[in-house]
Amino acid sequence: MRKFTSVVLATAMAFVAMEAVVGAPARAAAPQEYVALGDSYASGVGAYPYDSASGACLRSPKSYPKLFTSAVSGYTLKDVTCSGATMADVRGKQLSALSGNTALVSITVGGNDAQFSSVATGCLTQSESYCETATMYSSYYARNQMVGELAGLYGEIKRRAPRAKVVVLGYPRLVAPTGSCGAISPSATKRAHMNGNADAVAEGTRAAASRAGVTFVDMRQVLAGYEACSPKPFIHGVNLTRLTETFHPTAEGHAAYTFLLAANRL
């Protein structure tokens, strides 16, 4: 899997660049509306610097929506992603960007509803038993209540943008089984709990996408072997001076998201 993943990541931007050249003649006359929805994984947290105009939403020019639009011609982007966004935030602050003219929608959301960040922080700073309990509750939510909530949100996206292809890009596993994570390195037991929780969120998201009839992209497979704490991480480890970026994709990680969005947009 790691060899396959290396090939995928090495050719990701070459692929989307080729798409820009090959696809331009067919789409140049009629740009299609692309709306990017979601949380920090969609806004580009981890791919510093951020657009100052985006404020606390921390949108990066290296986020997967921005990279995709730069590399693949024929799309105009409405980027309403925002760091910290929950499903309620997407409904209340982002869905208004959709319309009957929207041709493509991407979304990554649900992690904040599952308390991904606070659970990870607890696993880094508290005991193994605390980490086990926190991930257990988050995982239960992700495999049960979250499925219906996400499916409902995806359904609302389809109603507001009936012509659009909806691509749900999931979350990766966060940490490698071994290796230094930077300022704080969790134990092997904690890592297993954290990755089990990531699996629960990914599987819950997959189930919701299937229920709603939208496309799900499993980022665990593409970033396998490149998690935080690995020899060549595409997920940030723990940097006490940039805590917001902990366990978020690096610029290379966002490029991998870009590749999968390009591959699943039609």
Task: Give structural attributes.
266 residues; SGNH/GDSL hydrolase family protein; Rossmann fold; alpha/beta; disordered N terminus; 10 helices
Model description:
By secondary structure, the chain is α/β, with parallel strands linked by helices. It has one domain (2-20, 31-263): 3-Layer(aba) Sandwich (Rossmann fold), CATH 3.40.50. Helix 5 (116-125) packs antiparallel against helix 6 (128-143), helix 5 (116-125) runs antiparallel to helix 8 (188-212) and helix 7 (145-160) crosses helix 8. Helix 8 (188-212) links the parallel strand 4 and strand 5. The protein has 10 helices and 5 strands. Helix content is 49%, strand content 10%. The two termini are 25 Å apart. InterPro entries: SEST-like, SGNH_hydro, SGNH_hydro_sf. GO terms for molecular function: triacylglycerol lipase activity. It holds the Pfam family Lipase_GDSL_2. Keywords: Hydrolase. This is SGNH/GDSL hydrolase family protein.
Write the layout of secondary structure elements.
Layout: H1 2-27, E1 32-38, H2 40-43, H3 64-71, E2 75-79, H4 87-94, E3 102-108, H5 116-125, H6 128-143, H7 145-160, E4 165-169, H8 188-212, E5 215-217, H9 219-222, H10 251-263
Parallel strand pairs: 1-2, 1-3, 3-4, 4-5
Helix pairs in contact: 1-10, 3-10, 5-6, 5-8, 6-8, 7-8
Sequence of strands across the biggest β-sheet: 2-1-3-4-5
Helix-strand category: alpha/beta
Number of strands: 5
Distance N terminus to C terminus?
25 Å
What is the makeup of the main sheet? 5 strands, parallel
* CATH fold name: Rossmann fold
Helix content: 40-55%
Give the strand content: 5-15%
Mean pLDDT: 91
**Considering the protein shown, what is the CATH homologous superfamily?**
SGNH hydrolase
Number of domains: 1
Radius of gyration computed on alpha carbons: 18 Å
- In DSSP terms (H or I, runs of 4 or more residues), the helix count works out at 10
Order of helices and strands: HEHHEHEHHHEHEHH
Q: Give the second-level CATH assignment, the architecture.
A: 3-Layer(aba) Sandwich
CATH class group: Alpha Beta
Which segments are poorly predicted (pLDDT under 50) over 5 or more consecutive residues? 1-7, 16-27
Indicate the overall shape.
Answer: globular
Organism: Micromonospora endophytica
Protein name: SGNH/GDSL hydrolase family protein
GO biological process, one term: triglyceride catabolic process
Keywords: Hydrolase
